Amino acid sequence: MRKLTATLLIALYAATANAQLEQLVESIEVRVTNIDVVVLDRAGHPVTGLTKDDFEIYEDGKLKPLSNFYEVRESVETRGKSDAAAAPEAAAMKDPRPRRVIFFIDNYSMHPSKRAEVIRSIQKFFDRLLVPGDEAAIVTWNRNLKMIRSFTGDLDLLEASLAELAKSSSGGLSMDHEVDRMKSRCLNILDDARNMGIKGPGIPRAHEECLSMATLQAEDLFTVERSLTSAIDTMLSTLGGVEGKKVMVFAGAHLPDHPGLDLFQWVDDTFQPYIKDMQPSSFTMRGRRVLTSSLDNVARHANANGITMYMIDAADNMKGFMPNAESSTEAVDVSSSFASYASTLTAFAAVAGSTGGMALTRANGFDFALNTLARDLNSYYSLGFKPDARQQEGERSIEVKCKRPGVSVRSRHSYRSKSAQDTMSDRVVANLFHRSMQSDLAVSVTTGGMKRQGKGWLVPISVSLPASDITMIPDGKEVLGGFDVYIAVGNEDGAMSSITKKGQIIRVPNGAAEALKKGPLVFNADLIVQKGEHVLSIGVIDRITSSSGFARAKLSAQ
């Protein structure tokens, strides 16, 4: 995942001179934490009609009283029906929060035909996955992250983007092609060795050469899959600072916790008939390339941002188990194919289960998987509680129990209590990708003419807001206030810079306070960016009231 470089050269101008940064007011803001809960009966059908008294929620093992509760049921509304045309009960059961969905398509691991099947199923259930007022983004992965459609509420535009994606090629070599090419070279080496005689030195040398090729391929797979988890993590960040029902739908065929282990299993199976008492390489290589930590971080990040993950396994479940005309390497591929398939499915289940979602396979077809996802998005309970504000920021475990017998409960397993700075940083990142960020402060940003500087481009920026928007409090013969400015730069493919924060204290004599409020506060800076098209995100927060405002601008460094 490429990270953008943005260097900030600060010059801050306000109605007063710079002062030492200090904390003006110590306040504790207790926000309600919402946990969405899916409740199913033994047949897998949603259980409706439960009340607040049917649930218990535990934070770090301690029972918490519920402060908020509502049920969401399947709505009959579609894009062709207004609220007035929908059934009264169904309309009343809609979630008041908008849905924000990321469709993440792994082009690198999926066969094009499977990708087309997944997209057709998404299109089939689109009216239940998204309704007017929702937002979604479509991203693909093929060793690099590409945002096909940035967040938009234009559902027709999203459907058109899905249709175009279904018709497009993945571009470049797929994972299957690269692995098959390695196996084919290995089999050719084995054939040459067999022609020299099974008892000769050719077979052991061929074995060593194939192990070397498998090692290189496994290293490449590990690097690619770790980069994929980083890309997933990046897209999770785009939803951290927005409200609503947040979901990532990931469709892919390969994300095992031990990338490349199946290759060593394949080498073992291939050479087992020719080398007596051969030490299985799959055992010695098991702990060398492990994605468990990266996958766990993805689940934790999703939970910290309140995002439920649905992992669609789009692998060809016959590959390696049935002869395939496209590959000459599958005759001895059964055990390694099973190892790869099982490892990926286990990883999918762990990530999805931890966030309250599901790992969806195509055992009953992708329509079944997408229908399950649509059902979850339209039938659930939202439980709210007030966290213990005296505890430090950080991850806290969550457990939800339902008193109704014979039901199963799914919800995320943890959440993260964030500091005010972390929360504001999330919102500034969200402002890169969402145009509907709510602002309490009238923040604006303008950019000046760019000029080349070294390997980058220097961009003057000016952030302004009415001084009357910033709260001032008496402090002896003076009044005191302050604000923080957050700055980030991103692009349409999800890459982003680190977040820069700069603060300003405002201290003026009592007699000058009214004159100060009549003018703007202006923050000037020089930003150095890389070549390309970028989005500049600005966030300003009042240090006393925590009121915030956001602005964004396009930057074209050519």
Explain what this protein looks like in three dimensions.
The protein has 558 residues and is an alpha+beta fold. The chain folds into two domains: 6-28 and 434-557, Immunoglobulin-like; 99-378, 3-Layer(aba) Sandwich (Rossmann fold), CATH 3.40.50.410. It has 13 helices and 24 strands. It has helices at 88-92, 112-124, 126-129, 155-167, 175-195, 202-237, 261-271, 281-284, 292-304, 334-354, 366-378, 420-433, 513-517; strands at residues 6-13, 33-40, 55-59, 62-64, 68-72, 99-106, 135-141, 145-152, 245-252, 307-313, 359-360, 380-385, 394-402, 408-410, 414-417, 444-447, 451-453, 456-466, 473-475, 478-490, 500-509, 520-529, 532-542, 548-557. It has a six-stranded mixed sheet, sandwiched between helices. Strands 1, 16, 17, 18 and 22 form a five-stranded antiparallel sheet that branches. Strands 19, 20, 21, 23 and 24 form a five-stranded antiparallel sheet that branches. The longest helix has 36 residues, at 202-237. The chain starts with 5 loop residues before the first strand and ends with a strand.
Short description:
The chain is of the alpha+beta class and 558 residues long. It has helices spanning 88-92, 112-124, 126-129, 155-167, 175-195, 202-237, 261-271, 281-284, 292-304, 334-354, 366-378, 420-433, 513-517, and strands spanning 6-13, 33-40, 55-59, 62-64, 68-72, 99-106, 135-141, 145-152, 245-252, 307-313, 359-360, 380-385, 394-402, 408-410, 414-417, 444-447, 451-453, 456-466, 473-475, 478-490, 500-509, 520-529, 532-542, 548-557.
